[in-house]
Amino acid sequence: MAGQGCPFEKRFPSELVRDDAYFMWLAYNLAVDAWRADEVPVGAVIAMDGVVIGAAHNQTISLRDPTAHAELLAVTQAAEALGDWRLSGAALYVTKEPCPMCAGAAVMARIARVVFAMGDPKMGCCGGAVALHAVATFNHHPIVTGGVLEDECRQLMQSFFQLKRGGEAGDREAAWN
User: Fold this and answer.
1) End-to-end Cα spacing for the chain
2) Which residue among 9, 68, 98, 176 sits deepest, i.e. has the most Cβ atoms within 10 Å of its Cβ?
3) Is residue 57 within 8 Å of 70, Cβ to Cβ?
C-alpha cells in the first residue's frame, strides 16, 4: 500500500452551519490524512459548543500502539484542552462505529453524544455488534447517532482495503481499526 496515494479529496464544508454533517466532514478529512499516512482511514473529531476540542486519525501503525485509535487520541486532546477528563457536553464524531475500547472510552469520558458514519456489525460497540453505551449498570449513557455521511465514509474505507489487498473485494469489516 505504501506509495499508493489516496484518490479521495478533502471536503471543505461551510462553517456557517456547524451540524453533525459539518463535524463528520472534518472527521472524513482526517480519515483521508490517515490513508495518506498508510493507516486505516478512520478520523475522529470531538466538539463542544460548536468548537473542535480534539481531532485525530488512526496512528496504530506509525506509533506501533494498538490503542492509538483516532477516538482515543481525540479524547486525550479534548481532555487536555478542557483540563478535565470529564468531557460532559462534548460530541464525538467518527467515520466508523467505535470498537469496544473506543466506545468504552466515550462512556468513561462522559461524552454526551457519539455520532458515527458507518456501522461495524462485527466489532462496533454502539449498536453494531454490541450496545456498550446502553449497558444498564453503567453510570453514563451517551446518545448515539449512526449513518451521518455513511456512504462517503464507507466508500473511503472499502476503497482503502480493496487497494490494500490488490483489488480483492468483499466484507472487510473485521479488519477495520
Assistant:
1) 16
2) 98
3) yes
Lookup: cell for 62: 506509525
The answer to whether residue 168 is catalytic is no
Query: Do residues 93 and 47 make contact, with C-beta atoms less than 8 angstroms apart?
Result: yes
Residue with cell string 500500500: 1
d(CA 45, CA 53) in angstroms, rounded, equals: 8
Q: In whole angstroms, give the CA distance from residue 159 to residue 4.
A: 12
Q: Exactly one of 9, 15, 39, 71 is catalytic; which is it?
A: 71
pLDDT tens digit at each of 177 positions of the chain: 444 688 999 999 999 999 999 999 999 999 999 999 999 999 999 999 999 999 999 999 999 999 999 999 999 999 999 999 999 999 999 999 999 999 999 999 999 999 999 999 999 999 999 999 999 999 999 999 999 999 999 999 999 999 988 865 444 444 444
Rounded Cα–Cα distance for residues 136 and 154 (Å) = 31
- Grid cell, residue 24, equals 463528520
